[in-house]
Please model this.
Amino acid sequence: MEELKVSSFPPGMEYNMAYDVSRFLDASISAVLTTLIEAFILVGIVVFIFLQDWRSTLIPVLAVPVALVGTFAFMNMLDFSVNLLTLFALVLAIGIVVDNAIVVVEAVHVKMEEGMNAMDATISATKEIAGAVVAITIVMSAVFIPVAFLDGPVGVFYRQFSLTLAISIVISGVNALTLTPALCAIILKPHDHHKKKTIIDRAFQSFNTGFERLTNGYVGILSKFATRTTVTFGLLFLFVGLTFVTSKFLPTGFIPMEDQGMVYVSVTTPQEQPWKERKKYWMK
Model:
């Protein structure tokens, strides 16, 4: 539709846009883009806290833009548009696509702790975990791909979401077996345990101590209750009941709320009678 121009109207006539729905969509997409950036930053921070090395953090973080850019290429091939559902899929994909890269980086670190250099450690680790990376990719994709085969309006809504997310996961799996090992062999260096510890190293040591204490406490609790079937099934039924109760007052759909507080009323008035017919009626 061609845009209306003021110059095309007769002199003295003006037009006003009473309601523009594109403003709501633009605001929603802008909010999702902000969430996309925030998710990317939070993933980088979490990875850095647990890997505790900026070189090791850089490799999984680089996997995120590679997977997203590759996903955009396949979205173009499938004629998908950038809408709320595809953007939500990309936000969710940020936290998923780093998993395969983290698995590779940690495996390489284990080999380097055994005395191997970066190249040999990468080759050995990749041979050992290649099957695991492929299995992770297939399992994660299998969660979302069946949604694309739904029929009706639900299938139309969720097809772009599921395929976008599945494509990003597959790209992350390919990335974990190609780009990530190459970056590990180039970037990673063995840890020097004899160097002077900095403030960051002390903070990481305190974090590791606290996290290990938390893990041991969690394992201790599980070891006490895992063998007691009554407690286990009781907790299971409790969480099922809580899920049922919370579903009564929490939103159950993934599609965002689009109520804009507008009320639309369509009124059709009766046609006006011709002048002659009205004159006869009045004469009667």
Observations:
- Confidence is low (pLDDT under 50) at residues 1-7.
